[in-house]
């Protein structure tokens, strides 16, 4: 699709198009190493072309066929400096046709070679390892800053208050009770003393 049946040049004086691509020769290897997908390409190919030449009044004055040959295309080729051989196999091509194919024909085949390399890279997801790691990694969320625990003031223990003094009535009863106990003890002691004297 990139090389066959494509318009190379369309001007009032020269009209040129590609025809059929010769069987390409070479190899292409795609491999994955340490998470990095890449490929190696080394090939050569040729594309047929056919052109018509017109005069100033638009009348066909000649036609020719030929080939645009690329002797070496690699994965890291400098496409702008790619070698393209122009040949004319049949027809009565004049100088205008040869000049057109050496300029426009070579520029066209180089642009198609650039598109071919880009398609191979995108078709096999060829990318740098760093870019792959960054696209798969999710952004890390910042950890919340832990706040220092705030010590709450401990409630002070309630101070024990002195027991209130009993009412005056209770104090009187307590004194009377103690007096009675004292009298009983005195009576008993007096009795014992008297008994001892009698004896």
From TrEMBL:
MF terms per GO, please? ATPase activator activity; protein-folding chaperone binding
SMART domains hit by this protein: Aha1_N
Q: Where is the composition biased (Polar residues)?
A: 125-140
Q: Which domain of life is it from?
A: Eukaryota
Pfam families reported for this sequence: Aha1_N (PF09229)
- Report the residue ranges that make up the Activator of Hsp90 ATPase AHSA1-like N-terminal domain in this protein: 6-127
Transmembrane segments in this chain: where?
none
Extract the ranges annotated as region (Disordered).
Answer: 122-183
InterPro entries assigned:
Aha1 (IPR036338), AHSA1-like_N (IPR015310)
Family, according to the entry, reads as follows: Belongs to the AHA1 family.
Q: What is this protein called?
A: Activator of Hsp90 ATPase AHSA1-like N-terminal domain-containing protein
């Amino acid at each position: 699709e990139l090389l066959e049946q494509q318009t190379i040049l369309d001007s009032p004086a020269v009209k040129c198009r590609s025809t059929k691509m010769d069987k390409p020769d070479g190899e292409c290897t795609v491999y994955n190493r340490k998470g990095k997908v890449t490929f190696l390409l080394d090939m050569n190919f040729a594309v047929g072309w056919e052109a018509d030449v017109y005069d100033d009044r638009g009348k066909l004055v000649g036609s020719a066929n030929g080939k645009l040959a690329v002797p070496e295309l690699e994965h890291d080729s400098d496409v702008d400096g790619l070698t393209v051989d122009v040949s004319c196999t049949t027809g009565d091509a004049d100088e205008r046709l040869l000049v057109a194919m050496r300029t426009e024909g070579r520029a066209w085949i180089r642009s198609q070679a650039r598109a071919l390399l880009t398609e191979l890279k995108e078709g096999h997801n060829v990318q740098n390892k760093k870019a792959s790691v960054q696209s798969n990694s999710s952004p890390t969320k910042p950890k919340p800053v832990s706040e220092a625990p705030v010590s709450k003031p401990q409630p002070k223990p309630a101070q024990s208050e002195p027991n209130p003094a009993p009412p005056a009535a209770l104090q009187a009863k307590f004194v009377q009770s103690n007096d009675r106990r004292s009298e009983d003890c005195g009576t008993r002691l007096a009795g014992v003393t008297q008994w001892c004297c009698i004896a």
